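Run: sequence + heme C -> complex structure.
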Amino acid sequence: MTSRPPRPRWTKPALILGITSALGLLLISCAEVNRAVVAPPQIAGAKYAGSKQCVQCHADEASHFASATHSKLHLTDDKVGDTGCEACHGPASLHVTSGGAAGTIVNPKKSPEACFQCHLDKRSQFSLPNSHPVLAGKISCVDCHDVHSGNAIRGTGAALASQNDTCTSCHTQQKGPFVFEHRALKEGCVSCHNPHGSINQKMLVARDANLCLRCHLEAPSTPNAGQINANAINTSVQNHNARLMQGTCWSAGCHEAIHGSNANNHFRY
Ligand code: HEC
Ligand code: HEC
Ligand code: HEC
Ligand code: HEC
Ligand code: HEC
Ligand code: HEC
Ligand code: HEC
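>> structure
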């Protein structure tokens, strides 16, 4: 028996978008960026109406948009016009004239295709063997990104909540508090995990001791030549060479409680 992988749920507009994605290239530009748009979202029979049209009915989304990362984007193609909102939602003339009829606008929450038109590399990241199940529709880009206000990467810039809070809102086990917390967490979950996907298990940025050695330096010139020298940030130097042959630092009965432990300051259970 073969089982097919779960498919993203297609909305009607998203389907239209997919079908028409063979269209030509448009260039978008703004002060700092110049990025190729594979194909802007399409809605059959609709034209661009302009962001000003949205305000009357969607004050919430429109009112803080000036602070949003994506408000700085402008498609320079004449045919597209002012596409602040419509860059993600597609041409909205039918939506506006019908007063918001169903099926007249793209909602990227239901499909990441609208994001992939400019962030094509993300499709491949989410296709890696260990990745967040965005393509399967279990979580979406907006679980971690803000599109209508502020910095698109939630938890950066002037935000009160940290970037880790986004992760631990779903991954409560890694939230702690731990009696002995691994201070690497202060550098962010993304210092060890790629948030989108990775070829490595558990979406790790490296699959072996190199994950740890980026912070816990190996310094062969010290008196403990050839050993892993944790002096850079930690004083207990032991010869780790024999241990490294037994497995990764976080398996092999060593630092399994890598995020933090309530039992042991070397992060063991
Ligand atoms: C005349 C009023 C009106 C205007 C103008 C309008 N909308 Fe809407 N819109 C609606 C209504 C009504 C709904 C559906 C009710 C709801 O879910 O709030 C809606 C729903 C939406 C949705 C959600 C669709 C879904 O399937 O979940 C999006 C996205 C949206 N509008 C974007 C826009 C954008 C972008 C503009 C400007 C280009 C715009 N709208 C202009 C009335 C309007
Ligand atoms: C960078 C892409 C992007 C841009 C630009 C953008 N949106 Fe959205 N919009 C989204 C995504 C993603 C969602 C789904 C988010 C959610 O439901 O939390 C969404 C949802 C919506 C909805 C539906 C909200 C609901 O509660 O169902 C409306 C209405 C909307 N956007 C209006 C706008 C307006 C108006 C603008 C311009 C001022 C705009 N959007 C600009 C990506 C974008
Ligand atoms: C029309 C093209 C376009 C679309 C559609 C688009 N983006 Fe972007 N996005 C960009 C560009 C260009 C940048 C770089 C902006 C910059 O560096 O200031 C960017 C930046 C970002 C960033 C990084 C912000 C940062 O601070 O580095 C995130 C996150 C992001 N986009 C998420 C999304 C998501 C999620 C969607 C779909 C809901 C989406 N984008 C749709 C063009 C787009
Ligand atoms: C599980 C949370 C999560 C999801 C889901 C997610 N992202 Fe991200 N994304 C992040 C984090 C965290 C960063 C910041 C990474 C860093 O600081 O190294 C980021 C960075 C980015 C960036 C800027 C840096 C880069 O890698 O280019 C873009 C663009 C982006 N994401 C787009 C997307 C798009 C498009 C989607 C949906 C298809 C998406 N992201 C889904 C968490 C997420
Ligand atoms: C909206 C909820 C949500 C958010 C937010 C979220 N995740 Fe996830 N995460 C998931 C889901 C769902 C899975 C897949 C679990 C599965 O397949 O059993 C997952 C899987 C993972 C895995 C792999 C676990 C494994 O067993 O292979 C890691 C690591 C991870 N997430 C880290 C992060 C990081 C880091 C962030 C913040 C940038 C984050 N997550 C934000 C829901 C979320
Ligand atoms: C010092 C590096 C490091 C940091 C920082 C880090 N992790 Fe991890 N994480 C790991 C390693 C290593 C594993 C694999 C553990 C294993 O396979 O037993 C892992 C596994 C996970 C898993 C899968 C757990 C399971 O039982 O399968 C999740 C979810 C996760 N991390 C989330 C997070 C979140 C959320 C943060 C930030 C609060 C974070 N990680 C910060 C190294 C790190
Ligand atoms: C982003 C940087 C960073 C990464 C990556 C990192 N660590 Fe750490 N680690 C730290 C910091 C900072 C401390 C706290 C040092 C201190 O308190 O002196 C620490 C402390 C420790 C300690 C406790 C030492 C003690 O004596 O208290 C252990 C054990 C440890 N790390 C193991 C690991 C392992 C195993 C990995 C790889 C899975 C790893 N670390 C990856 C930054 C990092």
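>> summary
Residues 12-19 form the longest helix (8 residues). The beta strands are 26-29, 34-37, 74-75, 130-131, 180-181, 197-198, 260-261.
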